[in-house]
Amino acid sequence: MPSSSNSNPREPSIDGECMDKADPEQDTRAQLARLHAENTALKARLREYEEHFGEPADTFDTKAFLTSRPAEIQWSPEGLLIDWSPEAEQLFGWKREEVLGRPLWEIVIPPGVALEQVRLGIQVTLTGQLASARSSNTTRDGQLIECQWTNTIARDEQGVPHAVLSRIELVEQDELDATLRHSQTFLIALLNNSPSVIFVKDTRGRYVMINQRFLDILGATHEEILGRTDSELFPPDVAAALQNVDTAALTAGEPVQYEEVIPTTEGLRDFFTLKFPVRAPSGKTLGICGITTDVSDRKRAEADRLALQEQIIEAQRDALRELSTPLMPIIDGVLAMPLVGAIDGIRAKEILETLLAGIVREHAHTAILDITGVKIVDTQVANALVGVARAARLLGAKVLLTGISPAVAQTLAALSLDLHDLVTLNTLQSGIAYALRLKREGASPVRRPR
User: Fold this and answer.
1) What residue spans carry the Basic and acidic residues bias annotation (predicted)?
2) pLDDT above 90: percentage of residues in the chain
3) Which option is the CATH number for 181-298: 3.40.190.10, 3.30.1300.10, 3.40.50.1820, 3.30.450.20?
4) Is-contact 274 290, C-beta < 8 A?
5) Average pLDDT of the chain to the nearest whole number
6) Burial zone of 81 (CB within 10 Å; 0-12 exposed, 13-18 middle, 19+ buried)
7) Is there a contact between 170 and 257 (Cβ–Cβ < 8 Å)?
């Protein structure tokens, strides 16, 4: 029988199973619910965006964001702008017609930068040595921005630059912060790993920066040093000396180098110090920086080296003295001292001391001074030889002077010296023969004084 109007809507499928007929109203309600959920999620994301960026999302220029490109400008070797892209207009706020023909430094360089510095940068860029650089620039409204410049030089057929194409990209704040943190970390590590003491004081003499070496030497902490002056940290005499040098460096406006003695945990130490004024870009003096190196060990080593050198020199002097005044026993009771070279006051004294000591040591009765190798005999030399003879006579020894040349004999005669304490002979051989004859005749040896 035919089914009634309120019969079951399920109909058999081809394979014999039943399936639901489509319900348009139910599908619409499901789509509305899904769109509502998506709309709620988008609103939540919008709120997150506004909270993060601090501005309504509808102010964000999506088109500019998606199509953003580096700003491009061209400028002549003289620094005059010859092209200015729309991206440059957006980045710096200047219209193209406002900047063409004007100097680069009037548009993008901060006012505080010296013109000489700008021109030097242009010259370096034209040599190709500044292909990429980071620079602080200024916008039309005076805002400072950090930019990355990439420079390409256009040259003519002779290789002469005729234009520079600069692509300029804004450095994001996150990157700037990361760079700044890296620079600060590197600077702190550099200061604290330095073997030298490094510090900065303000114009009132208060320590505003110190490194770890400073703390180690004084055995103090940052809290005990920062904000204090030398008068609060050192004895009055040391503090006054430090302050005088600070004043001299600040007054002169130039570096000052000097050595000083500072009390440390290891006692008084010697330091070599360099101090120089610290200035702001405007030229205003902010304070004074000091770099101090402990040279105590080096000075001690230098003193030891000098002492050793003096010992070596003294040993060499003794060796030369022995060579310059050689004393040789000929036979029992007879000594010979051949002299060579010039005889001055110092050497005359050495001859005297060596000969007298040898006479006593060898119990000698005869000493032969051979001056064959002495070319010049003047009043000083003659008096020295007479003095040696007289001193030897007091010890009971006779002095024979041999090797007298005709010229020396004339000099001695002209000086009218009393030579009765000397026996003069012309050769060393004759002197030795004379001494042997004295020994055979029974000359008495000299006894050691008691």
Assistant:
1) 18-28
2) 17
3) 3.30.450.20
4) yes
5) 79
6) buried
7) no
